Task: structure prediction
Amino acid sequence: MNKRSQPLLSDEQSLRSRARKRRDPAQPNLLLDQMPDRIEPALALLKARPPSDSRYIAEVKFDGYRGAIHVEPGGVRFLTRGGHDWTERFPGIADAARDLGVASAILDGEAVVLDEQGRSDFGALQRSLGGRGGKLPSGNSVFYAFDLLYLDGHDLQKMELSSRRHLLEELLDGREGAIRFSEQIDGDAVSIFNAACEHGLEGVIFKDPDSPYRSGRTGDWIKVKCIQSESFFVVGYEKSAVARGGVGSLLLAARKGGVLQYVGSVGTGFKYKDAVELRDMLDKLAMKKPLITYDGRRKNVVWAQPTLIAEVEYRAWTYDGKLRHASYKGLRVVQDNAAVYEIEG
Result:
């Protein structure tokens, strides 16, 4: 039996969530709303520092796969951020969804695998699925639900976030299985963020409690990261006779106004096995000319179709729009291309 993970931020007394009163069950009789087949997810806007607005609620930023659980009369579905059905890859989460005791619901959240300290580990999640492109069922994944968009015939998207979360908390009722409630962290925003970074977490999400659910990056949700990490297309690699696996570095691109823009390279973070697999995949995607404007400073480059998506940590951006101190974390799946970083302006 796996060792149970420790609660996040458990030793920060000032950051404990408050006990909440149960919501009044007396609700007005409303006409039933048709259940959406899919809802485009609300996305958090990246900011350099926590918000000054004291109304904002805070939650841990998880490092996994964003998804929506659809509980329907005909069964349960797990839809990825891009709308792909991954129900078979998360059987434990699907089973837990069937046991929620509701006729219909849509839960927004993130599927993760936790390490021994209770932190989400993207690499461990990938391995549990069988690696990049893997379709193995992840037996130890957990779904942290942070929003409720539909419940028993009622569309909740126009309801304020605080009320949606009260309903979600009641629905999950303290469950500690494969579906769990993403707890609010109490305290001032700066202290919460500093504590999250001290605990080795990726960052914190701050949300406007009075906001409806709006798809896209509207600014209702804000993310502040302890470690900068984003997804980029791999557009080629630099051959090396001395580097492990023959890969000196991966060349990366982001989206900008409907085209791809070169953002630099990453030459650390991958092991020998990773490098060999990357080289084999990129050789099969090889192209004679790049699909980006390139500065021409690197030699022995193998250009590739922008199919592979790498998750990369980095410290900052240079003045000319390149990544500084980048480190490779792993590959995301092709269907996750909605997560590729987009340069504003």
